[in-house]
Amino acid sequence: MIHVRRVSGEKVAEFPADQLSTVLVLKQRLQQICGLPRFRLRLLRGDAALFDANELAPGMHLTLVVLPLAEVSEARKRELHDAAAMGLEHVVEIMLQRPLHPDSARDGSVTPLYAASRDGHLSTVRLLLEAFADANVATEVGKTPALVAFEGGHREILRLLLESGADKDWRDADGKTLLWRACEGGNADMVQLLIGIHADAEAASEARETKGETPPLGGMFPGA
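The line above is the sequence of Fem1aa protein; the predicted structure tokens follow.
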């Protein structure tokens, strides 16, 4: 067994050793138990801190330490944002390990998740969501990560965001939902994705020229 306790001595969990290969795998399991991202978790064996790549062995007794989020300067916000925007997953990982808040925003609430979603970096989006980034943080002009993923045609990123709690019926600045816009643009692939995750097909437009009208599904799929 692998035994994990807090600094106070309180038992956190025990795991069969054959279920865990490395410290990283153990942190991912502890993330589910503690409700905190793995990036804030540190494991000690005695006085020595273990690295994510360290292998585990039966009979280990480990101490769990939860780190507070680090103070974030504007320079650090820019660094995290730029790394996310460029899809530099290893840099984002290092910064989240400090640990920085994954929603550290710059320039009108542009979060790292927004930047990665906008620029099509699926692995970086997945990493930020693992750090509990908020998929519904909107910019000053009302754009969310899901909206810019949709606008960029990043289907798998949009799917991941929606599966991670992004509002599937979020309205853009014109008052149209993603499903409305997908129908309007004739994007059958996005329409199928949104229908598949139960986007509201009755959500009426609030835009002046289409106010009160529901998404024009019939125009996409005759007979719908």
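Note on the example: The longest helix spans residues 23-34. The longest strand covers residues 61-66.
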